[in-house]
Amino acid sequence: MRSSVSPVPIQGATLRVVEDEAGAQGHTSGSPSRESPHRVAIIDATLACLARHGTLKTTVDDIARQAGVSRATVYRVFPGGRDEVLGAVVDTEMARLFSALGVALGEAGDLGDALVAGIVEASRRIRGHAALTYLVEHEPEMVLGHLAFDESDRLLVTASKFTSPFLARWMSPQEAERVAEWATRIVLSYAVSPADDTDLGDPVHTTCLVETYVLPGILALHSAMAGPAIDITPFTHADPPTGGDGTRHPEGDRP
Description:
single chain, disordered N terminus, disordered C terminus
């Protein structure tokens, strides 16, 4: 029988996990564990709710009912309520994606294989993600808000930092970070704006793209980094472009 106990108001950090020496060993002090047996069930239940109703219509009651727990249990595991649950869903899904990417990249035998495997794995997971598919269709502003400005920068940095060590087997760490960022941008670009003639979930299509555009670009990057430094970062009005001699040209005085 489901409990009908109402949630107790949360006062600030009363139920926060204490990350001390004991916490580092898998224990917590003064709060429920973030590894609660209900945590994954609640996160997966939230994903199911989001796939049906999106963020606007999903409530804590919906999540609790889907997870088969009481509303109070949801608040014990996630004191911040719905917003904290949604944040945990994003973190968990990113961790799951990176875990799968780590396996795919680690099994690659060369750079081309690594790029194809990583792009295919990421694209398939994004395309096959029911909750994300619903949000893109019905709440695009929610998704696009995380792909613009500072949020986009954080996503690119996170993805690049994770994948670049796998690519550094075939290039310098600096080159690996830049290439990892390129690959991430490619995946996001096709995820937001799919192309009829290119399916990045298809290894054949992705291999063609990698061999035609990405690998030649990497060779050009390697040559540029081995010779005189060339800034290939897109410029802004506050950061005017450089000329072939490496000097900056003021706005309005471009060659």
